[in-house]
């Protein structure tokens, strides 16, 4: 077990931060680490917007469903899938890159590129003794987020990353059994085994909530997730993405 | 600069590996690290298939465009966006989760979840002295990859990750200027600045190839990328993804 693996395994989401901003040096290190991630065919299909402006942070907190830690943290990053610069380069060279840029394949590439970069940023931040929380809530209201941050077409904010000095450390949440997520040579489709793994995990999660809440909460994982999925959220996304000239063909 | 940041900044893709398999302990550590990544609303929307079978690895190398290092490495992982287990859980609880699972939003969530997990795996592997290479070529022929690995609906192999002991170390490729990728408070849309940053980077990359190939290659980044984007590749993706009951609404 080395420091890198210890850092990675020690991850938990932090939602309470001290009122202490990151230094410019910390921010640069985190961004440089993001950029060091692999990128599909060297396409580098992402941008990162760091938000320091207090009014904008307050507004972002509202737009993400009143999450206080979007406003109160050491720094707030917005990770964006970005095929805008590729649009510009295509225009400049007068080459038709539109079918590629509008393809589902390149949409996927941009999402993957952005996420690999973000996870490097997250791990780098954690290695500096900082805590992080991914903010998917940024997708609640992308039109307004784009307007607030002056974001052009073919750039989609995917999530925020709140970073800062932790003022309250939470527990780590147990993950699905390794053998349920990791398959060898083919995808395991023995349904008895599949269900028994999920059952075992459901019980583990129920015990976890039970212990954490003094018996007030005992959700099983599969019930929690199915309940979440029963609600239809962010169903505007398809139209929004296509309006932004991505994932069209 | 700590060990974590050093590891992250030291990344380069490795395409030549020694003939030495990873141990089961190494594989388990890498998968455990993948699972430690953040996951959107605790959804855990991915699976990982480790391929040991020699015939399957050989076939995968063919399917990814004859990339030798897909066959010859220490271990080959296939990272899959996975909303299959959520389908099963919904059916078992007789709740209608179909609109959610078919949404563009949940497709994005699955891609992001998978990529965050994969990057943890990559960094963990590199910290163990191993080299890695992401294999996007797996998306050349997803129908056949799915058949080969017995992968159900709503599970999409996104990329492979070849891992092993490096037998040849490549150079690190310079990334876009930090100030081009990282914006403060809003997306920089001063086009003169935008172009000048790209020009500067184009020259850097041209010099990089020049030095690496003894003057035989001097591509500028923007030309390389626009040339790549002028070709329409993997245009079957939209139909394929929707046939797999994802990204439909």
From TrEMBL, chains A, B:
GO terms for molecular function: oxidoreductase activity. InterPro entries: Flavin_OxRdtase_Frp, Nitroreductase, Nitroreductase-like. Residues 8-165 form the Nitroreductase domain. Keywords: Flavoprotein, FMN, NADP, Oxidoreductase. NCBIfam families: PRK10765.1. Belongs to the flavin oxidoreductase frp family. This is Oxygen-insensitive NADPH nitroreductase.
């Amino acid at each position: 077990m080395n420091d890198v693996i210890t850092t990675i395994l020690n991850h938990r989401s932090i939602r309470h931060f001290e009122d202490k901003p990151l230094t410019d040096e910390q921010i640069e290190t985190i961004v440089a680490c993001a950029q060091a991630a692999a990128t599909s065919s060297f396409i580098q299909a992402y941008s990162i917007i760091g938000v320091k402006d207090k009014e904008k942070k307050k507004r972002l907190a509202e737009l993400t469903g009143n999450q206080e830690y979007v406003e109160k943290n050491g720094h707030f990053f917005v990770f964006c899938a970005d095929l805008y610069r590729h649009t510009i380069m295509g225009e400049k060279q007068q080459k038709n890159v539109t079918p590629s840029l509008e393809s589902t394949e390149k949409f996927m590439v941009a999402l993957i590129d952005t996420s690999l970069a973000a996870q490097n940023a997250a791990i780098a931040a954690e290695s500096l003794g900082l805590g992080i929380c991914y903010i998917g809530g940024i997708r609640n209201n992308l039109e307004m987020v784009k307007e607030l941050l002056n974001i052009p077409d073919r750039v989609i904010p995917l999530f925020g990353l709140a970073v800062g000095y932790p003022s309250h450390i939470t527990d780590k949440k147990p993950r699905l059994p390794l053998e349920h997520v990791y398959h060898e040579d083919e995808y395991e489709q023995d349904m008895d085994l599949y269900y028994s793994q999920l059952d075992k995990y459901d019980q583990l999660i129920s015990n976890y909530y039970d212990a954490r809440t003094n018996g007030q909460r005992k959700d099983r994982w599969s019930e929690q997730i199915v309940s979440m999925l029963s609600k239809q959220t962010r169903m505007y996304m398809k139209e929004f993405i296509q309006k932004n000239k991505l994932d069209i063909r």
